[in-house]
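Table S2 (text version). Query chain:
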Amino acid sequence: MIRYRKARLRVAEFFFDERETAADADIVRYQLRPQPIAGCRSHDFHSLCLDLSRDTGALFGAMHKETRYEIRRAGRDGVVHEFAARPDAGWMAAFYEFYDSFADSRQLLRVNRARVEALAGHGMFTLSRVSAGGGRTLVWHAYLRSGARACLMHSASFFRAGGQSEAALVSRANRFHHWADIEQFRAEGLAIYDFGGWYAGREDAGKLRVNRFKESFGGEAVHEYSADRANTWKGAAALGARRLRQALAQSLGGRKC
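Corresponding C-alpha cell output:
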C-alpha cells in the first residue's frame, strides 16, 4: 500500500492481489485487482502481459518478425539502454523534466509527483531510458513494480518534433527499449511484464495503433478491475463531484449541433 495527498485528500492505494489493511485515508483505491471489488463501482482494465518465466529465446521468437528486425536494427543504430531499479533524485528529476515537456506537447496530464514519490519510497518505481549517440535521450519508460510484476506507467518520446528519419529512429529505439526492459526484469526474477493497458474498443484509431504495437511483442490479454472507495465524508464528496463531472461531460459530448 502507498499513501499520498492529492488536492487536500489523503489517498491510499492497493495493487494487484495485495491484501487490504486499515488505511487512514479519505479515498482508498484498488488498482488492477483480479476480481471486481465488493461494495464499489468497479471499472474494467484490460492489458497485455508477457510471461517472463519463458526463456529469452522463446520470448524473442514470439514477437512479430518486423519487431525483431527493428530491435536488431536499433542495436546497430548504437542506442544505449540505461535502467534504474531504484532511481535516485537525479534520475527522478530528469524523468520529470522530459515527461512533463512531452505531456505538454501532447496536451496530456503531467506526472502525479506525489504518487510517484510514494511509489519510489516503497521501492515500487523503476525508470529506464534509451539514448542515441552523444547522450541525447530518445525514450523514457516508467514502471510500477509490485511483487513479481512490472507494469508500464508512462512512456515518453519526442519523435513527432523531428522529421521522418527521426521518427523511424525513435520507433526502433522504443521497441529496443521494451525488449531491454523485458530482459532486465527477467534477470531480476520478475514473472510478469505488463504493457500497462490495452484498448478494448474498436472506434479510436490511435488507440488501435498502440494496441498493434503492443501486440507485436506477443503476450496474453488480461482483464482486471480498479475502483475507488470513500473512507470519509471528504472522500465521498470528492467522488460524488467526480461522477457528476463525468456525467456532465458525457452529456455534452453526446449533443449534436
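Notes on Table S2: Helices lie at 56-61, 65-77, 89-106, 113-121, 164-187, 205-215, 233-253. The radius of gyration is 19 Å.
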